[in-house]
Amino acid sequence: MKITILFLVIAFSTIANAQIVNIPDANFKARLLQATQYNTIASTSMPNDNGYVPSYNKIDINNDGEIQVSEALLIKWLKVSTANITDVTGINEFINLKCFICTSNQITDLDVSGLMNLRFLSCQINDLNSLNIKNNNPDSWLTLDFFSNDQIDYICADEDDLTYVKNRALFYAYNYCNVNSYCSFTPGGIFYAIQGNNKFDNNTDGCDSNDLILPNLKYNITNGSVIGSTISNKSGNYFIPLQSGTYTITPQLENPTYFNVNPIDVQVTFPGTTSPHIQNFCITPNGNMQDLEVVMAPTGPARPGFNATYTLMYKNKGNQVANGNVTLTFRDDILDLVSSSVSTTSQQINELTWAYSNLLPFETRTINLVFNVNSPQETPQVNIGTKLGYTAFIGPLENDANSLDNYAQLNQIVVGSYDPNDKTCLEGTTIDPANIGKYVNYVVRFENTGTYPAQNVVVVDNIDTAKFDINTLIPLHSSHNFVTRISNTNKVEFIFEGINLPFDDANNDGYVIFKIKTNPNLVVGNTFSNSAKIYFDYNFPIATNNYTTTIQSTLGLQENEINNEITVYPNPVRDLLYFKTEYSVLKVQIFDIIGRIISSNSVSGNKIDLSSLQSGNYVLKVYTEKGIMNTNIIKE
């Protein structure tokens, strides 16, 4: 059984069986009222696997000239061909219908998404522009005929049916017909739901309305054999529609040892469980954990002589309130700060600092930045292909459980012309072997270049599980509200439902930023690549570039141009190694000559004890608030 996971709060309406079905097309209504046991219009019998029925029946049983819902529910086979019908509104009340034949009419848009039992559909020889067969039926189509609809340009279907429907469209030579599941993000037919909210109870007195919301929480969903995941939006509320069956929903935190979750999971069985089933999750701190993270990402291209835009994100991943500073270093001689959405605490050459306070657990804050890039006529000049390097740091580093993500590097290449729909790895085209198995960050940018607002945008990323660990994917930030769905073991969908993205150049841009770990078995010389497809409403997807990163040793290369600002002595060294610099040395990583990390150490007093290190040649990566330095040493 497949799992359909969607993300919209749905208002259910109960339709009494005595209610009259609204059928605005007079020809459609007339044909339904003509049904008797003496013609081949309708049957209450279940069709066989060839679509045939043994007998036929009247629909308007009470002879009132209307079709009641109760009458529609009895029909399992219906044929309304050659009746000059243009609109079949009302057909979705025939929810037990298994076979529907409506050939040789003038129907332009056919929506049978409410017919979850439908397995036979013949709608050939019409004027179809669109066809919606997304009906949440776990069974396969037995008949699906829609030939002689040469102008059809969009078909919406369930995820499990997409390959079959695409092949049917190609069989009919409908090469310009787009097929996907993004006409809606609610299932057709009958479904059930579990919903609730997530709260962080900092003082462990029980979650209540005064506690903090916990945004973007991931839930794993399994029915015993099929696993899917959904990541809620920033509201702290979640809604998961499901088919009938038994499911276990389990919250998944990035750092599960930092927190306790109550309940650990929840099990529901539909239709036996009341729908929607309300289940809130209460998260409390486990011990005292401090863990900060910073990410610097471009939200637009960098071009010579033009402004470049960025977002600087920092997050409290720990379980205690944090206070400190965020620092950004950059080349002030080729970049001029135009604006910062948050006022700086200090501004020096090559460095900006922002103080922050009361950063709550799970809280993310952003600083939007605009820099002007030097033109080729300025000194120093910036040309296409120039690399712009940024290093972000968040402190305090002391007692941080994972100091690696207190630093973030962005290496952005200056471009001339550019594709507004693109993907970038923030770490650049190369990473050091020390970062194998660690997080890399991606930004996907999209732009509505059409002539009408895009109601929905979906970014689809098929993760290469030979290179990445799909279970570690975490959305970080976006331009607009979204939810994330993970299915089919490697398919990730960032769903911007109701985004209504404008088409004017000042407002038609969006982006999503996420991180994911590379697999730990990668080695020097391996590459990993990532691309995405962007769906704007019912249009064909736009493919981004395929961004490739190579694992190679960069030791000994200058980083952020601070190598000349730190002196390391004595070298060769026997025990204590000293760092002479005006900056505080925060951490030192030691690598052997083939690039394997030997140790990672915090530093106190700008010195480190290497007495236990074996004799030999090593490379040091020295981390400061200013930037990163690489140097070679000899251990006696």
Describe the structure in your own words.
The chain has 636 residues and is mostly beta strands. It has five domains: 1-189, Alpha-Beta Horseshoe (Leucine-rich repeat, LRR (right-handed beta-alpha superhelix)), CATH 3.80.10; 192-285, Immunoglobulins (Immunoglobulin-like), CATH 2.60.40; 290-418, Immunoglobulin-like (Sandwich), CATH 2.60.40.1510; 421-551, Immunoglobulin-like; 563-635, Immunoglobulin-like (Sandwich), CATH 2.60.40. The longest helix has 10 residues, at 162-171. The radius of gyration is 30 Å and the shape is elongated. The termini are far apart.
Number of domains: 5
Give the strand order of the largest sheet, numbering strands 1, 2, ... along the chain.
17-15-12-13-34-35-32-38-39
Query: What fold name stands as the CATH topology of the largest domain?
Result: Leucine-rich repeat, LRR (right-handed beta-alpha superhelix)
CA radius of gyration is 30 Å
CATH class category of the largest domain? Alpha Beta
Q: What separation lies between the terminal Cα atoms?
A: 65 Å
Let me know the average pLDDT.
89
Q: How many strand units?
A: 47
Please mark out the parts with pLDDT under 50 across 5 or more consecutive residues, or reply none. 1-16, 555-561
Helix/strand class: mainly beta
Please report the number of helical segments: 3
Please give the largest β-sheet.
9 strands, antiparallel
Proportion of residues in β-strands: 35-45%
The best one-word shape is elongated
Q: Helix proportion of residues, in percent?
A: under 10%
The name of the CATH architecture of the largest domain is: Alpha-Beta Horseshoe
